[in-house]
Design brief:
It is a single chain. This protein is of the alpha/beta class. It is 39% helix and 15% strand. It has helices at residues 14-39, 100-106, 140-159, 171-182, 184-187, 208-214, 217-223, 234-243, 250-257, 273-279, 286-296, 311-318, 348-357, 374-377, 381-394, and strands at 45-50, 56-62, 77-81, 110-114, 164-169, 190-196, 228-229, 284-285, 303-304, 325-326, 334-340, 361-367. Strands 1-2-4-3-5-6-11-12 form an eight-stranded mixed beta sheet, with helices on both faces.
Length: 397
């Protein structure tokens, strides 16, 4: 695929590139992560996992490091789950010495990367078509209830390990908090929960999410009539391959790509902007976005299941007139967190309240200048976060 490692094209190839990109985008939907892994000469495996409600999720595996033998000793399994509008590509988008998946593989871990339902790379269901509104009737409720249990159980069964490590970023954290607090059979499978840019409460969020929360829901229905929000498109690949390859446009492309998450060029490998734009944004459902909007408009530090808008509809889904509340205080899994004073999504005031309620918090670190996306793409994350994750893992084998 074009722009796997920041490769670019000459101006006289523009016409051919437009044709190639159209084909490449379709191929990328099935094998983007595997392609990147193989490019760097790491072993790669890819599987489909079916949830109890019929969604087909993709999970990629790096079973061992590039220099390791397949027959070598036991490797603890770790599952990485991405944030909103991202995909599993975020864990391998940087160079191997700056991508968490590669770093973990080289450190002796069996690395798995899952995709939540509905992102660009896995718009699949055993019965429903992504062209139907029924397909997009989900939020992070269903991701916590169905996606995480399916992926975790698959990794446990495939590896034969009773417990695995879990690393979540943003949406990967809120789903983790919900799943591990509400489903004991899932929680008991997790050795340690590593939460990067932890999201649970959103009442203090600023910037983009504040704007999102203030816009009327009807406007979203008008803007996204197909119920899909910010899918990856051929236009993104064209911009990445033809425009964002120019050094002079790096900052502009970076601001465009990370507009929703905050952009700090000092903590981003600017030479990889075209790579990031080649895979992001990766889309989600309108219902999911509206669920975040509902969380941000709560008057107190409360997170509820999705509100269907009427007592009758809520009764139909929850057997009560209002959506049930989630309670992180019941979380028993050992948890380590990293948040930032500069994060526009995981606001430090919300994070402070969340951290005070986690019963088994084994480690927490508050960084100063990290934007929301920097926890998975930041060039300083290797030293600020990833090596500490490995250190904690080694002490909890």
């Amino acid at each position: 695929m074009i722009a796997v490692v920041g490769q670019t094209v000459r101006h006289d190839q523009t016409h051919n590139v437009l044709i190639t990109l159209a084909v490449a985008l379709e191929l990328a939907k099935e094998g983007a992560v595997s392609e990147i892994i193989s490019y760097w000469n790491y072993p790669s495996e890819e599987y489909d996992v079916v949830t109890d409600d019929g969604y087909i999720l993709g999970v990629n595996r790096i079973p061992h490091g590039k220099r390791d033998s397949e027959r070598e000793t036991f490797r603890p399994a770790v599952l990485l789950m991405h944030g909103l509008f991202l995909s599993a590509t975020c864990w391998v988008s940087n160079l191997p010495n700056n991508s968490l998946a590669f770093i973990l593989a080289d450190a002796g871990y069996d690395v798995w990367m899952g995709n939540f339902r509905g992102n660009t790379y896995f718009r699949k269901h055993i019965h429903l078509s992504p062209e139907s509104k029924e397909f997009w009737s989900f939020s992070f409720d269903e991701m916590a209830k169905y996606d995480l249990p399916a992926l975790i159980n698959f990794v446990v069964k495939k590896t034969g390990q009773e417990q695995i490590y879990y690393v979540g970023h943003s949406q990967g954290t809120v789903t983790g908090f919900i799943a591990f607090s509400n489903f004991p059979e899932v929680a008991q499978r997790i050795k340690v929960f590593f939460a990067l840019a932890p999201v649970f409460y959103l009442t203090q969020s600023e910037g983009p999410i504040e704007i999102i929360s203030q816009l009327p829901a009807i406007l979203y229905q008008i803007l996204f009539p197909d119920q899909e929000v910010l899918p990856h498109t051929i236009l993104s690949n064209i911009v990445a391959a033809i425009i964002c390859k120019h050094h002079i446009l790096d900052v502009i492309c970076g601001k465009m790509n990370f507009a929703l998450f905050g952009f700090n060029p000092k903590n981003v490998n600017m030479s990889r902007i075209d790579v990031y734009l080649s895979y992001n944004p990766a889309g989600s459902s309108l219902q999911n976005v509206l669920h975040y909007k509902q969380a941000a408009t709560e008057t107190k530090e409360i997170l509820r299941a999705y509100d269907f808008g009427s007592s009758a509809q809520n009764m139909k889904h929850y057997n009560q007139p209002t959506p049930p509340k989630y309670n992180v205080k019941t979380l028993k899994v050992r948890t380590a967190t990293w948040n930032s004073l500069s994060d526009v999504w995981a606001n430090p005031r919300d994070a402070k309240i969340l951290l005070s309620q986690i019963p088994n918090l084994v480690y927490s670190d508050t960084l100063c200048f990290y934007q929301h996306i920097d926890f998975v793409l930041g060039k300083n994350a290797t030293w600020d976060i990833y090596y500490k994750i490995i250190q904690i893992m080694k002490h909890t084998l």
